[in-house]
Amino acid sequence: MPTIKRTSQAHWQGDLRDGQGWLKTTSGVLTETPYSFGTRFEQQPGTNPEELIAAAHAGCYAMALSDTMSEAGHKPESVQITATCTLESQPEGGFRIIRMDLRVVGRAPGIDQATFEALAERADEGCPVSNLLRPGLEIAIEARLET
């Protein structure tokens, strides 16, 4: 498979607190989607970098888990991933993303909870986004098999 490249753009005007910007993806999924200090730090409507990182991680991990389960002979009926990216204020100033929590719910015939948990951990090892984030970031996985 050839090398794959994906491109996104960000535009920002003004200072951090009063400025605003937009994000855009080549695919058109994001088309000048607004973001600001308020959407990032104050829960105002709109997106923010941490939400987008969490979405990327959830999507990538869902694909990795589905593949890992299939390779182990447990074709998934479904997997649902909720990723929570934690941004924390640092004592020395600034902010740092410190943790990603993945809540994993899966459904597949003929699999038990222990096997599902082991496959969930293995999927994390093969997930490109997990591998990008892992150095310096704690990734916690809570896996639950749905019957």
Structural notes for this entry:
The chain is of the alpha+beta class and 147 residues long. The protein folds into 2 domains: 8-41, no CATH class; 49-145, GMP Synthetase, Chain A, domain 3. Helix content is 33%, strand content 33%. It has 4 helices and 6 strands. The chain has a 3-stranded antiparallel β-sheet. It has a 3-stranded mixed β-sheet with strand order 4-5-6. Strand 1 and strand 2 form a beta hairpin. The longest helix has 23 residues, at 49-71. The protein is elongated, with a radius of gyration of 18 Å. The relative contact order is 0.14.
Structural shape: elongated
* Helix percentage range: 25-40%
Largest sheet: 3 strands, antiparallel
CATH class of the largest domain: Alpha Beta
Number of domains: 2
Termini distance? 36 Å
Tell me the structural class.
Answer: alpha+beta
**Proper CATH architecture of the largest domain:** 2-Layer Sandwich
Q: Which residues form runs of ≥5 with pLDDT under 50? A: none
Q: Radius of gyration in whole Å, from Cα? A: 18 Å
**Number of DSSP strands?**
6
> What is the fold named in CATH at topology level of the largest domain?
GMP Synthetase, Chain A, domain 3
Average pLDDT level: 96
Strand order in space, largest sheet: 1-2-3
Per CATH, the superfamily of the largest domain is K homology (KH) domain
Kindly estimate the percentage of residues that lie in beta strands according to DSSP: 25-35%
Our count of helices gives 4
